[in-house]
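#struct-pred

JT: dropping the chains for the assembly here, can someone run the whole complex?
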Amino acid sequence: MANRKVSVWSSIPFWRRSAAWVTGFATMLLIWLSFDTLGQISMGTDADLKNGVTKRVPAPTVINYKIDYKMDAKRGHEVPVIGEKQPFFGKEWSEQEAADLLHLGKLTSQAKNCMNCHTLLGNGAYFAPDLTKAWLDPAWQNGGALQGMTGKNTVEEAMAEFLQHPSQYPTHARMMPNLGITADEAKGLVAFLKHMSSIDTNGFPRNFSKSVETFKAGGTHAK
Amino acid sequence: MLNSIKTNEFAGDKGKELGMMYFRVAIILFGAQLLMGLIAAIQFLVPGFLFELFDFSVARMVHINALVVWMLYAMIGSVYFMLSDETGEQLVHAGLGKLAFWVLTAAVTVVVLVYIFVQVGAGTEATIWLINEGREYIEAPRWADIGIVVVVLIFYWNVFMTYMKGQKTGIMTVMVADLLALAGLYLAGMWFTDNISMDQFWWWWVIHLWVEATWEVFVGTLAAYALIKIIGAKREIVEMWLWIEVLMLFGSGILGLGHHYFWIGTPEYWWEIGALFSALEPVPLVAMFVHVLYDWGKEQGIAKAEGKTGSVMNNGPAMAWIVTNAFGNFLGAGIWGFFHTLPQVNIYTHGTQFTAAHGHLAFFGAYATILIGMFYMGIQYAYGIKELKATFKSKMGIFLITFGVVGMTIALTIAGYEQVLVERAELGGGWNAFFAAQELPWYIQAQMWRAIMGVVTFVGFIYLVLDLVTIGKQAKAAQAA
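RK: done, full complex below.
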C-alpha cells in the first residue's frame, strides 16, 4: 500500500494550487480589461465634439447638441448620433458651465434616490420607466403628451417643470412623488438625462427608435 | 424576546458569544427587510399607498439595504462562530470585537432612521455624506461607509490574528483569503463621479464581485464547515471539494462580471466575455449541490454499514436549510441567472421584473438559507443540545418561506416575461411603453400573486422566529428528561 501512487485528482495540494492559479489568472485578466475599458469610457472633451470625434461617453458640452438614436446597419443596433447645435434652456453652455450643471445633475440624481424607482442604463428599481434614453422619448418631444401637459415648448423646459411638480402632472395612477427638486436641480437633472442619452450603450434599449418612428408617423398605439 | 437566543453553554467561548450577538441583529433586520418588501409590493397594486409619506423608493431602499446588512451580520456572526472550532484558539481580542459590534449596530440604526425619516436631501455633497448615496444596494452615506470600513478592519484583524495563532485548516484559509477580497471590494463603491458609465462600472465591482464571487465562496466555506459539524463529513473530502469549488467559482464568477457590462457604455467585447464566463457560473453551483447531498448519503451509508441506526445528522433544521441552500443556490443563482445572462436575451430582459425574479430566488437560495442554517447551529451550541430535532414550527418556517419565495419568483418571472414582450420587443421601451406593459391584466395579476406570496413568506418568517426563540429551551428540557 505504501508504494501505491495516489491519483492527482484526489490530491488537495493539486486542487489548492489550481484554485490559486485560476483565481490569479482571472483576476489579472479582469484588471487588464478594466484598464482598457476605463480608457474607453472616460468622458470625451469639448474638442472631440467640435471635431466630430465619437466617444462612448461624450463631454458634458454634448448638451449643446441635438442628439438622435439611429439604427447602425454595420453594428446591427441603434447608436446615439450627435447632430447640429441646439440651444439648451435657450443658450449655449461653456465647458465649465456644462460640467458644473452635469455635476449638479448627477449629485441630485443620487440625492433624490432616482435609482430606487427608475432604472438608469437599465440598473435600479423597476417601479418607473427606464431613464437611459428618456431625453429622446417621443412623449417629451413637441407634440408629445408629456410635453403638452406641462404647457412648455421645449423638451428641457417640459422635463424641468415636471421634475419640480411631478404630482401636479399625473400621467398614470402610479405617480412620481414630489421630492423637493429646485429649479436649478431640475436643470441639472435634465442635463444629466440629456448627457446619458448620448452614451453609446451598444443598442440598449433595443427598439427604442421604433417608438420614435411610430410617433413621427402619427402616433403609437401605446398611448 | 430574542434574549432566549442567548449565550449560556459556551463556557467562555467569546467568538461564539459574539457570533450569537450578530445573529440576533441579523434576524431583526431580516424581519425589517420582509416588512419593507410587503410595503413595496402593495405599492405596485395600490399606487396611492403611503404616497409622498413613505414612497416606493424609500421602502425599496430599506428593503434591499436591510437584506445586504442582515446577510453581512449573519456572515460576520458565522465567522466568529466557527473560529474556535477551526483554529483551536479563542478569539484574540474579544473586547474589541464586542466594541466593534456595538459601534456597527449603532451606526446601522442611525442610517436606517435617516433613510426612513429624512429620505432625500438637496443635490449637494452633504447629502452624499450624511443622508444617502443613492446608489442601489450601497446607499449608506459616506460617514457610514468609513465607519463600516473601520469596523470591518477590526473584525478582519481579529479573525486573521486568531487564524495566525491557531491551526490553519483549508476551510479557514479559504475563509481568511475570501474575507480579505470581500472587504477590499467595498472600497470600489465609495467614490463619486459625474460619469454615470464609470459610476456603474465600479458599482458592479462591489455588487457582482460580492454576490457572484466572494459571497459564493463564503457559502461554500460555510457549507464545508457545517457538513463537518452536522453530519460528521470527513474533512479531507470536504476540503478537497472546497478547493474545487473555489477554482470553479472564481474561475467563472470573476470574469462573469462582464454580463453587467453589456449596456452601460462599456465596449462590445464584454458581450463575449460576459456570456462565456457567466454561462459557466452555474457549473460550480451544480457541484456544490451534488457535494452536499453526496456527502450526506455517504455518511449515512457508512453509518448503516457500521450497523448504526438512525440519522447521522445532529441538527435537523440546520441540515434542512443547508439542503435548501444546495437546491436554491443552483436554481436561483444558476438557472434563473442563466435564463437572461446571454446578451441576445439580456438586451430585452435587462431592467425588467426578470431581474427581480432572479434577485429574489438567488439571494434567498444562495444566502438566506445557509445563514438561517447557521442560526440553528448557534441555538444548538447555545443550549448544548446533542441532537436538535425539527419541530412543527421549524417545518412550517422552512416550508412557508421557501414556498413563498418560489411563488414570488414565479410571479415576477411571468411579470418580466410580459414586460419583455410588450414593453421591450413590441413597443420599444419608452415612457408610454413602460406603463402600457404595467397596466395589462397579466402584469397586474402577476404582481397580485407576488404580494400574496410575500405574505406567505412573512408568515413563514414568524414561524421561524417563534421556533428560534423556543426550540433551544424545549430541546434542552427534553434532553434533561
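JT: nice. The mean pLDDT of chain B is 94. Residues 441-480 of chain B form the longest helix (40 residues).
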